[in-house]
Design brief:
By secondary structure, the chain is an all-alpha fold. 73% of the residues lie in helices and 0% in strands. The protein has eight helices and no strands. α3 runs antiparallel to α4 and α4 runs parallel beside α6. It comes from Amphritea atlantica. Pfam families: HupE_UreJ.
């Protein structure tokens, strides 16, 4: 791998070093800027979204560009659905625990290089996203501008999903399949530490 690609991987790893472990810890949810920053404020969001992007590249039986778009798009849609459900007053117990489980599961799936059909990949990504969306929606009554906040976190979520997909494509192009496995181990280890 040339130095430029090594620097890209290093920059991505640096971006994964968050200020706090979980992003749902009483932060400000006032508007657009806070929505943009929210997914970057906790490793739970960063790791799951990057993991879903990685899974979309190399962990499905269908290696088409359709998969690279469909799996992250399903994540976004399910996250919005979870947000809207929570905003309607639906109370789901153990949302934070569901988020931790999504981190661990995403890591294990990557580490084991589990291959999915397109439908299964969409279902797994959607399941992860639902918990993240429910957590977002539960916070929104505190927001001054809820729609602006939602727009902000959707933009950053999209960027993180694309970053994961691009990292997977980069690893694929250099025949570095171990990158996803190593990332999976790191993601799962973080999830286990967060659970304790």
């Amino acid at each position: 791998m040339n130095k430029r690609n090594q620097l890209r991987l290093l920059a991505l790893a640096g971006a994964m070093a968050p200020l706090s472990a979980m992003a749902h810890t009483g932060h400000e949810v006032a508007g657009f800027v806070q929505g943009i920053l929210h997914p970057l404020s906790g490793a739970d969001h960063l790791l799951v979204m990057l993991a879903v992007g990685l899974m979309a590249v190399g962990k499905t039986h269908d290696m088409s560009s359709r998969t690279r778009i469909a799996v992250p798009a399903a994540f976004l849609l399910a996250m919005v659905a979870g947000t809207l459900l929570a905003m309607t007053g639906l109370s789901v117990p153990f949302v934070e625990q569901g988020i931790v489980v999504s981190v661990i599961a995403a890591g294990v799936l990557l580490a084991l290089a589990v291959r999915f059909s397109l439908v299964a990949g969409i279902a797994v990504a959607s399941g992860f996203a639902l918990f993240h969306g429910l957590a977002h929606g539960a916070e929104l009554p505190l927001a001054v501008h809820p729609l602006a906040y939602i727009a902000g976190f959707l933009i950053t979520t999209s960027v993180l999903l694309v970053a994961g997909t691009r990292l997977g494509q980069l690893a694929d192009s250099y025949s570095m399949g171990m990158v996803s496995r190593i990332a999976g181990v790191a993601v799962a280890a973080f999830g286990v530490l967060a659970a304790v």
